[in-house]
Amino acid sequence: SPAAAAAAMPYTIDQVKELVREFPDFPSEGILFRDIFPIFREPEAVECLVGHFVEQVRGLGSPIDAVVGLDARGFLFGPLIALRLGVAFVPVRKGGKLPGGVVQAKYQKEYGVDVFEMQADGIQAGQSVVIVDDLLATGGSCRAAEELVGMLGGTVVLNAFVISLEGLEGRKQLKAPVYALIEC
Predict the structure, then answer these.
(1) Could you tell me the CA-to-CA distances from 11 to 18, 22, 40 in Å, in that order?
(2) Largest Cα–Cα distance of the chain, in whole Å?
(3) Of 27, 106, 169, 175, which one has the fewest beta carbons inside 10 Å?
(4) What angle do CA 15, 135, 41 make, to 5 degrees?
(5) Rounded to whole angstroms, what are the CA distances from 13 to 7, 54, 57, 180?
(6) What are the angstrom distances between the C-alpha of 41 and each of 19, 36, 109, 146?
(7) Which tens digit of pLDDT belongs to each residue from 73-108?
(8) 170 vs 34: CA distance, rounded Å
(9) Residues carrying an active site annotation
(10) What pTM does this model have?
(11) What string of DSSP letters covers 122-135?
């Protein structure tokens, strides 16, 4: 059937972008929330998104050793990107969620300070790393992840996001270059 044939057609990156929904006044008044979860309801869209990020990383021109995904939405596609690249996936989690020895970095949130942790053996000295997450806003959480990678002797070569909120100037907080699929 034509509908089945259309459903099997691969997504373009523009079609993936169109799946992101906007919810005004969520989670509070004055916030425009951008929801990436509809992408994950469409396997071909996920395939396109992951392939796009893999192309961005390969376009750096030098190999990387690990993909670092931020708690929690970076866990949705970070492991898939790492798998495609044939490199390690290393999670960054909120404080108290990882077993064993960890390194910690604090970061500012809207209403206080939070802590990110990475297992102390997650990154080896000299490794090149790409950090992935869904959203770049003020840059605090990604900056903390950059610090964690640096504490372990790694180098962040790219921070990659599905969405970047340009008005909040999160890019200015980060040392490594930033790539965002969607800039708002």
Answers:
(1) 11, 20, 13
(2) 56
(3) 27
(4) 40
(5) 16, 13, 16, 12
(6) 10, 10, 30, 30
(7) 999 999 999 999 999 999 999 999 999 999 999 998
(8) 16
(9) 73, 110
(10) 0.92
(11) SS-TT-EEEEEEEE
